[in-house]
């Protein structure tokens, strides 16, 4: 899962990033309104942590811009302003949650998990596809109730395919989702092919009722066929 932290306070931004990376999230950062809008325009995120007070603009205006793009990224506002009016406005504009600074990192992580459960799992603790069950918080997978061991990238890849089942996902979108900013260092998408190949092999060995179709020149699609 990929998270964008838009926060101008460097120390807090780094602490949040390190905490989320320990939980195996892919984390990207922005410290200004301009950096934030560039990230939002160019990429998709599972969750955005958004500070209201940025040095060159308002996080509320960033939220308005995000919604005007018709994007579905979940948003948690993190702000030192404990104002009812700000909370109400943020939620009315489409934010999923509002957390006032200072906060415990454990609470922030719990809020993120809750938002992602509502968004991708309809509130359930697990995500199911045929005989596959994905437990996101525990980062574990069962096939016909038997454990299937995946590395971090394989887990993220399977999760991304299931969330986007029956939809074409391009190689570039997979790279952005699973590798984040690091994908810019790659000169090809061979690493995507390699991870998909490994995941397919493990799914087949565990008799998972799933098919990851290759769409020539474009990407992949997870189907029942």
Please outline what is shown here.
This protein has helices spanning 10-22, 33-42, 59-68, 84-92, 105-120, 152-163, 171-179, 190-205; strands at 2-6, 26-30, 47-51, 53-54, 57-58, 74-79, 97-100, 126-129, 132-135, 140-143, 146-148, 169-170, 211-215, 219-223. It is an alpha/beta fold. The chain folds into 2 domains: 2-120, Rossmann fold; 126-223, Winged helix-like DNA-binding domain superfamily/Winged helix DNA-binding domain (Arc Repressor Mutant, subunit A, Orthogonal Bundle), CATH 1.10.10.
Structure description:
The chain is of the alpha/beta class and 225 residues long. The chain has 2 domains: 2-120, 3-Layer(aba) Sandwich (Rossmann fold); 126-223, Arc Repressor Mutant, subunit A, CATH 1.10.10. 42% of the residues lie in helices and 25% in strands. The protein has helices spanning 10-22, 33-42, 59-68, 84-92, 105-120, 152-163, 171-179, 190-205, and strands at residues 2-6, 26-30, 47-51, 53-54, 57-58, 74-79, 97-100, 126-129, 132-135, 140-143, 146-148, 169-170, 211-215, 219-223. The strands form 4 sheets. Strands 2-1-3-6-7 form a 5-stranded parallel beta sheet, sandwiched between helices. The relative contact order is 0.11.
């Amino acid at each position: 899962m990929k998270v964008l932290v838009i926060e101008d306070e460097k120390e807090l931004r780094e602490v949040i990033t390190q905490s989320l990376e320990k939980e195996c999230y892919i984390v990207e950062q922005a410290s200004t309104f301009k950096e934030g809008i560039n990230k939002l325009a160019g990429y998709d995120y599972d969750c955005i942590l958004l500070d209201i007070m940025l040095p060159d603009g308002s996080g509320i205006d960033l939220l308005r811009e995000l919604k005007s793009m018709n994007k579905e990224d979940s948003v948690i506002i993190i702000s030192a302003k404990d104002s009812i009016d700000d909370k109400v406005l943020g939620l009315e504009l489409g934010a999923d949650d509002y957390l006032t600074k200072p906060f415990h990192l454990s609470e922030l992580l719990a809020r993120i998990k809750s938002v992602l459960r509502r968004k991708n799992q309809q509130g359930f603790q697990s995500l199911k596809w045929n005989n596959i069950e994905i437990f996101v918080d525990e980062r574990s997978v069962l096939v016909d109730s038997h454990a299937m061991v995946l590395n971090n990238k394989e887990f993220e890849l399977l999760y991304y395919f299931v969330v986007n089942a029956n939809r074409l996902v391009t190689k570039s979108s997979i790279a952005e989702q699973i590798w984040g900013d690091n994908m810019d260092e790659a000169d090809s998408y061979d690493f995507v092919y390699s991870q998909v190949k490994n995941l397919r092999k493990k799914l087949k060995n565990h008799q998972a009722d799933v098919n990851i179709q290759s769409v020539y020149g474009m990407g992949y699609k997870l189907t029942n066929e």
